[in-house]
Please model this.
Amino acid sequence: MDNTQLIYLDNAATSYPKPSECMHRALDRYLQLGASPSRGGYDLAREAEDAVSEVRHALRRFFGAGADYPVCFSSNATDALNTLIQGLTRPGDHVVSTCLEHNSVLRPLHHLRVQGRIEFDLAGFDTNGFVDPGDIAAMIRPQTRLVIINHASNVLGTVQPVAAIGEICRSAGIPLILDVSQSAGAIPIAMKSWHVSGLAFTGHKSLLGPCGIGGLIIHPDLPIRPTRFGGTGIDSANLFHTQTFPHRLEAGTLNLLGILALGESLSYLQTPETRECLIREMALTEKLREGLSEIDGIDLYAAQSLENHIPLITCNVRGHVAADVGAILDGDFNIAVRAGLHCAPLVHERLGTAPNGAIRFSPGIFNRKAHIHAAISAMSIISRSE
Model:
């Protein structure tokens, strides 16, 4: 399929296109190394392990973690969040979260509650899409084991006041877990200074890496248990899974190619040219917001201002089902967006957009003004159709 004419505005789902130079460099290095990290004492295996360690160090720096914070790789943020939630909670525990969460948080919490293992409360959000830190504080009980929040909403694009929530959690002695699936690579993150105890990330969105690689970074004192067991390449004579980090949370062979590609994309994101692209990305989002707001018949959600926002706009065309609008944008205008509930059903319930959801536009660093003009024009045409 020829995608050269495609206007891709679904970067909140996965970034596209990927920076090809990063992928090529990662593949070249992978083909050169080849060996499995931590699975041999010969030079090539040690070199592969060193390459993985380099990416761990890069991730600590990128997310503002401490030098002693373990970095554990996973297949994606959902995998990392499950590890954190199930590895930290015990029967009788209470968890505080929000109605802005993705199903990668909501479903594990619901699953554990149905099993009778935990209880949880969800803080709401205001009309602008923000959680009040005071609401989080009010929900904390003596049995509260952790607070887990979505840094940036994948439906509304709003960035939550993590520093204030982190201070509340620090004062209460409760770990704060942060889902940075949408914010990582789009805005700066300061894990240590925000008092974040655990952070879950995925590589394929604004980090510009491939699918199938993600992970978690944790405070060294966070008492997380492994939830899966198997080979780690160390302490093989012991039938109990090792408790040393990062191997405690990394059962099985690592995705070396994905890790190398993620390391390349982290370097790419920190070049002056890419930082300029990120600034332009928000400018394009503002232009999109302004253009859509001027079209009669379009409802925007939590987009009165793009302050404390990632590049994401969600809307609906009155009288039209979101899925139909998405199909028209694709079929008639060659514009790719995400239509539906965005795996965040509680957000849409509170917005009044359930069960059909809404249209989500999420520009990326490779979009141009012409793409935004085309999207605004297409939505104007759709809004006037019957």
Notes: The chain has a mean pLDDT of 94.
